[in-house]
Amino acid sequence: MAALIRSRLTDWTTLVPLIAILILAACWGRELPAAVIAVVAALLAGAVLAAVHHAEVVAHKVGEPFGSLLLAVAVTVIEVGLIVTLMISGGEKTQSLARDTVFAAVMITCNGIFGLSLLIGALRRRVAVFNPEGTGGALATVATLATLSLVVPTFTTSRPGPQFSPAQLTFAAVASLALYGLFVLVQTGRHRDYFLPVTQEGSVLAVDADGDGHADPPAARTAWASLALLIVALVAVVGNAKLVSPAIESGVSAANLPQAFVGVIIALLVLLPETLAASRAARRDRVQISLNLALGSAMASIGLTIPAIALASIWLEGPLVLGLGGTQLTLLALTAVTGVLTVVPGRATVLQGGVHLVLLAAFVFLAASP
């Protein structure tokens, strides 16, 4: 038992959040030199990874659908914390930060994680196999959420510019929560088998000895420890984001990049754990799990972040710009069409994976050079 406790205390997922909290307490309210900012940024990235790890442990213990909701809420807290922190300190130039971050998350998940998973799966087995019913439903939900929250504001006329009126924003927030909640219920209950891995012949593949598609849950003591560390990690992420936010904005300006590129940086940071987890699943021939992670992250980014930002806008000064521009609308439409053509057969080669990755590259390039 003593050896187990020592192992737990020296694990990086335990040490990083604790160190990040100590650094946060020591640096709060002070002008930080570049070297300290670099350390804080490294701890911020580590705290994000640790937070998602502990959320996954707790989610696995409590079971579905509460586990999926907990994991999504944890990631959303990180994303919303970063967005609100930068919006408070950035003034007028961050009015579109929520839109830029959510759109970047959609492009990274639906093209980057999606394409990488298909590419790895196809390289291993020549053809990546997944369930088109579950994946198609997830893609349809993402497309609907993205259209309601990011496309419609561009064409509404109640307010000048690409923004919702208060009533429209409330409707979009409620609709997003309803759609996300409905998807979670379908994924974890009524049609759970649509989201389990499949063999090359198309039959459902059991992931563990029990045949339920899940590893055995952790012990209660482990779950409680992870819950405590999850709270510590989330506080560390939000607090350290506040410390490094001036450096992020200064770095973007110094590199002559558009302000919208800050949203890309936030999305890349938040989605790093999901990218690593999806890659590992694809290498183990669990492409369906990888696609669940990709599209589930996109759904949570829109379905939970937009309502949270809508609530936060009550206290934030200035308008909340959500509508996409012409270039972004084109990329989103192309992503949706390409995704449909990829998902319908239930099988994909390296070509489909490459197409999605090229779309991600186009998005990043055009975000840096609009």
TrEMBL record:
Membrane-protein topology: Multi-pass membrane protein
Protein name per UniProt: Ca2+:H+ antiporter
Keyword annotations of the record: Membrane, Transmembrane, Transmembrane helix
InterPro entries: Alkaline_pH_Ca-Antiporter, NaCa_Exmemb
Superkingdom: Bacteria
Transmembrane segments: 12-29, 35-54, 66-90, 102-123, 135-155, 167-186, 227-248, 260-279, 291-315, 321-343, 350-368
Keyword Flavoprotein in record: no
Entry GO CC: plasma membrane
Domain Sodium/calcium exchanger membrane region: 34-188, 226-366
Primary localisation category: membrane
Pfam families to which the protein is assigned, alphabetical: Na_Ca_ex (PF01699)
GO molecular function: potassium:proton antiporter activity; sodium:proton antiporter activity
Compartment annotation: Membrane
